[in-house]
Amino acid sequence: VLFQLRNPSSPPCIRSWIPWFGAAFQFGKAPLEFIEQARSKHGPVFTIFALGKRFTFVTEEEGTEAFFNSKDLNFEQAVQQAVENAVSVPAEAFYQNHGTLYSMMKGKMSPSNLHVFTGTLCKELHEHMAPLGTEGTGDLNDLVRHVMYPAVVNTLFGKGICPTSQSEIKEFEEYFQMYDEDFEYASQMPECFLRNWSKSKKWLLKLFEKVVLDAERTNPSETASKTLLQHLLDNLQGKHLGPNYGLLMLWASQANALPIAFWTLTFILSYPSIYEKVMEDLASVFGKAGKDEIEVSEETLKKLPFIKWCTLEAIRLRSPGAITKKVINPIKIQNFTIPAGDMLMLSPYWLHRNPKYFPDPEVFKPDRWKEANLEKNAFLDSFVAFGGGKHQCPGRWFAIMEIQLFVVLFLYKYEFVLLDAVPKESPLHLVGTQQPMAPFRVQYKCQE
């Protein structure tokens, strides 16, 4: 049952006759579809009551400046409970560590530091593409995961620290996939409702006890030789929480970058003119495809801006349904007053479909990124996939680089025949990148 609160200064509120659960059942089934229906019925600002909380959505540009800059909103309070549910970090430890760890990650993964990772990541990607052989058939999403997961983990955590051998990786992938698929629900609901997810979390935390011990045992004294995990452990207050933060770092490094790499490849391969342009660019930098392994540096990537545009355009089209902050003092958005205690949800997914900023918003158009000043690390107006203000994703430049590097190596080595129609994005994910609804099988063989 949908109905509007009587207070005219409050946004329309959607709830149900079940007191605590509210609209959780309808909302949880397909969040993006639910939001689309709510936008059509109630306008761009509305509240959903679910699981004992009020979630107020802002789906157009009015309110974005307040969302990113207002002191009446708080990011840490919005995500603290989710982090506690997801990786069992208590509130006190979260507030104690968040600022320090965020600053460390932001510095280590800044544009000026990417060269530290590029060479290692390039070698790792080559190594993990090798088992694909000279030809084969498979779901593109699986192919991306099997190459990128071990390569990125070895780059950020240190080679051999996490399970990346073929014998160990299958069990790990099963547990991590179970953990990732229900992460969104588990971050909001009591663990007792999600028994399989709880099992995967316990298994992964147990694994990370060993991962952290290995990282500490091999932790070098020279700063330049440390992995990102070792930097995290050096800065962490409460060393017993190393496995918890290690798991959080693993999830953050994989959960969004892998599906975006899949979508970037999918969009390029499904638009012949775009694929042709990408291959021309690769040939102009590396020579004709099909040569031996190529070395790709940060400087080389700068010569391939079109592939970066393709990556950013895929991110625009498959951005999260919502990013969140907690209202700590009442705040005015449009003609509504949002009360303290609400979770304010800004929707990148819908903002990126505003034709005022993105003409033909549903079309994959990499050329629109010509207008962005990417040399100065500036995105297009109203592009908010990584957040904004002082709490932007600290790993955003690494994520763009890793996807760009993977696409370069994959398309330079292999040519593809598409065996399925391009899948639609799943409406099930609100917080993370949109996943494909169906398999996307491809036939691949080495370029001649």
UniProtKB/TrEMBL annotation:
Membrane topology, from the record: Multi-pass membrane protein
Pathway assigned to this chain's UniProt record: Lipid metabolism; bile acid biosynthesis; Steroid metabolism; cholesterol degradation; Steroid biosynthesis; zymosterol biosynthesis; zymosterol from lanosterol: step 1/6
UniProt KW Metal-binding keyword: yes
Swiss-Prot/TrEMBL keywords: Cholesterol metabolism, Endoplasmic reticulum, Heme, Iron, Lipid metabolism, Membrane, Metal-binding, Microsome, Monooxygenase, Oxidoreductase, Steroid metabolism, Sterol metabolism, Transmembrane, Transmembrane helix
Cofactor entry: heme
Main localization of the protein described in the UniProt heading: endoplasmic reticulum
Subcellular location: Endoplasmic reticulum membrane; Microsome membrane
Record field: catalytic activity: 24,25-dihydrolanosterol + 3 reduced [NADPH--hemoprotein reductase] + 3 O2 = 4,4-dimethyl-8,14-cholestadien-3beta-ol + formate + 3 oxidized [NADPH--hemoprotein reductase] + 4 H2O + 4 H(+); 32-hydroxy-24,25-dihydrolanosterol + reduced [NADPH--hemoprotein reductase] + O2 = 32-oxo-24,25-dihydrolanosterol + oxidized [NADPH--hemoprotein reductase] + 2 H2O + H(+); a 14alpha-methyl steroid + 3 reduced [NADPH--hemoprotein reductase] + 3 O2 = a Delta(14) steroid + formate + 3 oxidized [NADPH--hemoprotein reductase] + 4 H2O + 4 H(+); 32-oxo-24,25-dihydrolanosterol + reduced [NADPH--hemoprotein reductase] + O2 = 4,4-dimethyl-8,14-cholestadien-3beta-ol + formate + oxidized [NADPH--hemoprotein reductase] + H2O + 2 H(+)
One annotated GO biological process: digestion
Enzyme category, top tier: oxidoreductase
Positions that bind substrate: N256
Listed EC numbers: 1.14.14.154, 1.14.14.26
Gene Ontology cellular component annotations, sorted alphabetically: endoplasmic reticulum membrane
GO molecular function: 24S-hydroxycholesterol 7-alpha-hydroxylase activity; heme binding; iron ion binding; oxysterol 7-alpha-hydroxylase activity; sterol 14-demethylase activity
Record bears the keyword Isomerase: no
Binding locations of heme: C393
Similarity comment text for this entry: Belongs to the cytochrome P450 family.
Its biological purpose: A cytochrome P450 monooxygenase involved in neural cholesterol clearance through bile acid synthesis. Catalyzes 7-alpha hydroxylation of (24S)-hydroxycholesterol, a neural oxysterol that is metabolized to bile acids in the liver. Mechanistically, uses molecular oxygen inserting one oxygen atom into a substrate, and reducing the second into a water molecule, with two electrons provided by NADPH via cytochrome P450 reductase (CPR; NADPH-ferrihemoprotein reductase).
Name used for this protein in its record: 24-hydroxycholesterol 7-alpha-hydroxylase
Gene for this chain: Cyp39a1
